[in-house]
Structure formats: structure tokens, C-alpha cells
Amino acid sequence: MAATLLGIPAIPSSDTHLEAPESRGPSRREGAGTDGLAVADLDRTSRLRAMHTGELGSVHSWELVTAVDGPGTRMTVFLSGCPLQCLYCHNPDTMQMRNGEPVLAEEVLHRVRRYQGVFRATRGGITLSGGEVLMQPAFAARILRGAKEMGVHTCLDTSGYLGANATEQLLDDTDLILLDVKSGDPDTYRAVTGRELEPTLAFGRRIAERGLTGHAPEMWIRFVLVPGYTDDPANVDLVADYVRSLNDLRPNAVTRVEVLPFHQMGRDKWSATGREYLLGDVQPPTPALVERVREQFRARGLTTY
After folding, report:
1. Fewer CB near the terminus (10 Å): N or C of the chain?
2. pTM (2 decimals)?
3. Could you state, in order of their start, the residue ranges of all structural domains in the chain?
4. Pseudo-torsion of CA 49, 112, 168, 158, nearest 10°?
């Protein structure tokens, strides 16, 4: 684990919208957490045990950004590993857990402590993203629990595909969920991700229904608009109807919808990781198309950006 892990730079002076992390991550030099545990001292069996308990995780990179990945200034930690194979993924280098660096949960929390003042001043906090965070639920749970104990706002960015991995305690410690609903049509979802849609839908319903009897994280829905893939009006209607159904289950279960236009920013990463990129000829959606899709959500009474 690196002594420079999450060595955070100056806060950006203006709002930044980044959908992909920069290549800032742990260095190869490993150190010790505040509890004395050192990654370098662990053999393979001990590392596996530490990952099982959540003391150790695989981290790809990090960002400190404003107005991205939740409210305020946020420390976004990108975990490695993802079960989806999204054709338009802008972080293909996070798909394999082995491509990350071993990081102690306590070291992440140590960095959170350093920036408590910044988070309080900006109403920000920590966001766990990926990859898919719920590939490492025990590690995520430790970080979220520790952050909540400090009074820091917590956010989970997830596809929901592994929502069954989220324990009740993990959800208790989560203030906001960014749920990526990549398609409303099961065939389209399978075509763009290689997986099934239903686990995502079930996770969203679980969060909405949870609020009927106790704490439920706020939900923001994210929908990536990819021309020729996810832009069909019928597909968008299915996503919008699903989101509205969550608010029918519990008023204000979803407080925000973000339509994210497809871009080519991650294209070079595909070749760098030896993967075939199939969307090289796909152009970003026009402003008119983006507005049409946003209006489809707004027509259901959803606050949409």
C-alpha cells in the first residue's frame, strides 16, 4: 500500500465534469495503516483473509472533484473489478480486479479524516465508484461505516447488478446511491453489458421499498445516452417508466435523473488494455437528442439534468 495513496491535489477552482478517473492511483511502495497492518507483510493467505473481512481491497484510482459523483467536493475512490462488459465503458482498465492495487480500508479512512473540513464546508463527502463497488462489499462496507462515524456524507455509485451483495448495514451507512440504469429493455441491456437487466431493477426497488420501514439512501438515476444503442424512444420510455415506478413505491425515492451523453474519452484505454473497441464510429448525441431524452424523463415528473 502506498505512502502516497490518495495523495490528493489542490481542489479544482471550478466545477468539473469527469466521467472517467485520471490515472492517479496508489504507487507501488506499500506502507502500513494506522492499526499497524501492513500490506507488504501479508502473505497470500493473509491477504485473501483481509480481503474477505474488508480490511484490504483493490483500488484502481481516485479523484477529488466538485459537482461530480454527488453533492459538494467529493473524494471519489474507484475500486477495481466489474461483472459487466459495457461496450461504451470509459474505464475498461477497472474491469479486472487484478489491475488494481492492494489498499487498506484504514488508509482510505485516514485520508477521509484529513479532508473532513473540506467536506463540511462544501457539503461533500466520499463516493465509492468503479468498476463495480459491490464486487468488494466487505471493503466498501468498512469504508462507508468509518466515514459515517466521522459524520462524512457517503455515496455509492453502482450498476445495481450485484445489489444482493449490499448488506443492510452497508445501506444504513450510505446516504446517496447513484444507480446506473443502462437500459430499460432487457435485450438492449444484454447487448450493451453482456448481462441481465433484472438485478439492477430489483436493487432499485429494494432501496425504494426500504424507505417505507426505515432508512433508505437518496437515489439519483444515471442513464448513458449512446446513439444507436440506448437512444431508441421506446427504450428510454422503459427506463423513465421504471424510475417513475420507484417514486410510486415511495414518494421522492428518486430525487434526480442524470442523462449522460456518450463520449469517446475512454477510447484509448481500450487499445491500451488490449480490448477491441466497437464504438469507434459512434458520435456523441446531438444537443437536440439529449434534450429529447431528458424531456421523456421530465414528462414523468422527474427532475432531470
Report:
1. C
2. 0.86
3. 39-298
4. -90
Measured CA to CA, the distance from residue 254 to residue 303 in angstroms comes to 9
Nearest Cα neighbor of 111 from 211, 20, 31, 192 is 31
- Domain 39-298 indexed as CATH 3.40.50.1370: no
pLDDT at 22 over 70: no
* DSSP state at residue 282: P
Separation of alpha carbons 219 and 176, rounded Å: 6
In sequence order, the β-bridge partners of residue 77 are: 62, 128
What whole-number distance in Å separates Cα of residue 39 and Cα of residue 141? 19
How far is 259 from 303, CA to CA, in rounded Å? 11
Task: Please choose, from the candidates 28, 6, 264, the residue with its C-alpha nearest in 3D space to the C-alpha of residue 127.
Answer: 6
Beta strands in the chain (DSSP E): 56-66, 73-79, 101-104, 125-129, 153-158, 176-180, 218-225, 254-261
* 134 vs 74: CA distance, rounded Å: 19
pLDDT tens-place string over residues 51-87: 889 999 999 999 998 888 999 999 999 999 999 999 9
| Under 8 Å between Cβ of 57 and 106 | no
Q: Which three cell numbers stand for residue 49?
A: 483473509
DSSP-assigned letter for residue 304: B
CA–CA separation, 90 vs 267, rounded Å?
Answer: 7
Smallest Cα–Cα separation from 260: which of 110, 68, 32, 83? 68
